[in-house]
Amino acid sequence: MWMPITLLGICGSMRRGSLNRALLVAVGETLPEGATLRQWDSLDLPIFSTDLEDPPAVVALKRAIAEADGVVFAVPEYNYSIPGGLKNAIDWISNPPAKSPLRGKPCAIIGAASGMSGTIRAQAHMRQILLYSDSPVLSQPEILVARAYERFDAEGRLIDTVTREWLTKFGAALVRYIERHAPRTS
Questions:
Q1: What is the DSSP string of the chain?
Q2: Average pLDDT, rounded, for the chain
């Protein structure tokens, strides 16, 4: 790693005890040396409208994304797609399109679910949404944690060694991906 990497983790779930929030914590614990992840606290935002000025929470989120080297979205799956609060946040973040802090920002998508799909549909939708903001998205390795309730303890700590190994590989791949997309100064 040739430079320190700062990541912003954004969880699409509003629940404090969300397994996707716990998954973001585990990503932060498994990143290579020199890389750090800060979790964004809340996506509790008003419904997006171009008639409104950016509220303070949106301004702060846009600034946090702009300051990060990359963004990790932890995406739960609701009704075969992403949660409405996450879509609403992305609508705010991507407006106006030419000034969106997501434009060109390296991103990654992860997800944990109690079922067997591991958020595969939600992640596919999230990739489609990020096309609009021209955000490069890490394609491999995919982190689709199925039966997540078996992989975390009651306090939300990752206890599954195989998942931890996946996250370690994911973190290393994400750092390399961000380094490839980093602006170069001469």
A1: --S-EEEEEEES---TT-HHHHHHHHHHHHSPTTEEEEE------PPP-TTSPPPHHHHHHHHHHHHSSEEEEE---BTTB--HHHHHHHHHHTSSGGG-TTTT--EEEEEE-SSSSTTHHHHHHHHHHHHHTT--B--SS-EEE-SGGGTB-TTS-B--HHHHHHHHHHHHHHHHHHHHHSPP--
A2: 94
